[in-house]
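Many groups now describe folds with learned vocabularies. In that spirit, our science desk offers one protein's residues alongside their backbone shape tokens.
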Amino acid sequence: HAHQVMSRYIYTLSSQDLLFDAWARMNEYDIKQMPVVNEHGEVISILSEREIQRFLITQGVANKPLKSSRVADVMHSDVITAEPVASLKRVAKAMMDYQQPGIPVVNRGNTLVGFISKGDLLRSLIQEPTMSLWS
């Protein structure tokens, strides 16, 4: 299940964060995407490195758009999430179907409780080869 392999310490963003700060944090923590949460910790979006790059291409490559734009200017409201009891097969399929490098794990109130990356799935295969990933 998702709760068995998810990362529990997750870096998050606010929709009001500057894109420059979001980009800096992604680089600092060496991650490709970050969940965007509201003041209640509910997932409202996910911002990826790819979306920031697309924004820069359309706005010009200079850092000025990053320093004056907010996460809300780039984020989209369609976000794929998983519940802690979701099977790893279902999580992996969602990653493939929606071309996502990771998926936020939320409780029934849509509050962020974890995050599963492709790396987390692969680590679980290496560390727990007897674990049934496909149940």
The CA atoms of residues 24 and 88 lie 31 Å apart. The helical segments are 2-5, 19-29, 49-59, 64-68, 88-97, 118-127. Residues 19-29 form the longest helix (11 residues).
